[in-house]
């Protein structure tokens, strides 16, 4: 049952939301906290850039068919599903929460959990590292563009050059600086993963606290009922189930081997909380983003629970195949 329990970070997220609900940031403190959050996000993306090895990128790029399938799933299939959910009546799915699901659908894949589950299941880890990293790099451009396009089509605003400029300045620029310095500091940063983890998680928690503080002040919990939250959970689950089935069976139809199928399944079905929350704070600057990031936070926990189960099933199946091959080889030898 432990795989169904929330991880430590999810518990911290819940505690942060509770703190923001009871003691929301406001006034001068909120302004200073917002400036500190901006700096923390820049540091987060700097570390992402410094961690990414050039050798991994070059090796992974050779497997271009796999990367195209993952990128199309992330930035085409997911957004189309998000648009389809727009036909659900507002009486069932409130518009602010629908926009949160739509935003979730245009985000890049995760890096850490995609790689971890791919490794656990016996997939193509180098390809997963490259694909998940590439998804986040392309996402800095594609996510704000898709937000502008899809939100405009849905009648909820249009493309903002200012949002793209802020993404480039606050997220891409620190990432590039990290990549430039990677030959000198990359090895040290990768070796200090446990020490630097608080920077990763702390910056996300800061954004979540600030986002929900603003939302609570504006009456978030008076706007949405438990039924509304339950609807989002159901839709998040269905969305994930569809994409998992699509990536699993689609990769088989396209002739990928089992290791690549595992990589496509995990990298193609994930959505990044680490990138999504900072992006939401930039793209929707000046707006209440509590309802925008809420579906993403729920999806984050669902994908971790489901991913753990699927990874273990893949690993068990691989172990059975190895055992069967050994038995067959021993039988032939006898």
What does this structure look like?
- The protein is mainly α and 334 residues long.
- It has one domain: Na+/H+ antiporter like fold.
- 82% of the residues lie in helices and 0% in strands.
- Helix 7 (125-153) packs parallel to helix 12, helix 11 (226-253) packs parallel to helix 14 and helix 13 runs antiparallel to helix 14 (290-333).
- The model has no long low-confidence stretch (mean pLDDT 85).
Write the layout of secondary structure elements.
Elements: H1 8-22, H2 27-51, H3 54-61, H4 64-84, H5 95-105, H6 112-121, H7 125-153, H8 161-191, H9 193-217, H10 220-223, H11 226-253, H12 258-269, H13 273-283, H14 290-333
| CATH fold name | Na+/H+ antiporter like fold
Number of domains: 1
- Counting copies of identical and different chains, the oligomeric state is single chain
Number of strands: 0
| CATH 2nd-level architecture | Up-down Bundle
Radius of gyration: 20 Å
Total count of helical runs of at least 4 residues: 14
What structural class do you assign from the helix and strand content?
Answer: mainly alpha
Measured as a percent range, the helix fraction is: over 70%
* Straight-line N-to-C gap: 42 Å
Quick one: biggest sheet? none
Mean pLDDT: 85
CATH domain class: Mainly Alpha
């Amino acid at each position: 049952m432990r795989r169904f329990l929330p991880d430590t970070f999810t518990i911290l997220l819940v505690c942060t939301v509770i703190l923001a609900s009871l003691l929301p940031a406001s006034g001068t403190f909120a302004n200073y906290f917002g400036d500190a959050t901006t700096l923390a996000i820049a540091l987060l993306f700097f570390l992402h850039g410094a961690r990414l090895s050039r050798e991994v990128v070059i090796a992974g790029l050779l497997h271009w068919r796999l990367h195209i399938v993952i990128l199309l799933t992330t930035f085409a299939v997911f957004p189309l599903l998000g648009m389809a959910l727009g036909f659900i009546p507002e009486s069932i799915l409130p518009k602010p929460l629908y926009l949160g699901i739509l935003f979730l659908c245009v985000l890049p894949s995760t890096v850490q959990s995609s790689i971890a589950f791919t490794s656990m299941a016996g997939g193509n880890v180098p390809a997963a590292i490259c694909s998940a990293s590439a998804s986040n790099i392309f996402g800095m451009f594609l996510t704000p563009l898709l937000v502008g396009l899809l939100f405009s089509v849905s009648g909820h605003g249009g493309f903002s050059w200012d949002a793209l400029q802020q993404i480039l300045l606050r997220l891409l620029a620190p990432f590039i600086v990290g990549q430039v310095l990677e030959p000198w500091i990359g090895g040290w940063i990768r070796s200090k993963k446990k020490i630097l983890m608080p920077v990763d998680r702390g910056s996300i928690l800061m954004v979540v606290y600030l986002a929900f503080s603003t939302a609570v002040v504006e009456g978030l919990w008076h706007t949405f009922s438990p039924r509304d939250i339950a609807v989002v959970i159901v839709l998040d689950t269905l969305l994930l189930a569809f994409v998992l089935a699509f990536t699993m069976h689609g990769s088989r139809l396209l002739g990928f081997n089992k290791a690549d199928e595992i990589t496509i399944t995990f990298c193609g079905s994930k959505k990044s909380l680490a990138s999504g929350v900072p992006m939401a704070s930039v793209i929707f600057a000046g707006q209440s983003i509590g309802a925008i990031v809420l579906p993403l936070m729920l999806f984050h926990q669902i994908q971790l629970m489901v991913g753990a189960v699927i990874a273990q099933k893949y690993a068990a199946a691989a172990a059975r195949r190895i055992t069967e091959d050994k038995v067959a080889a021993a039988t032939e030898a006898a």
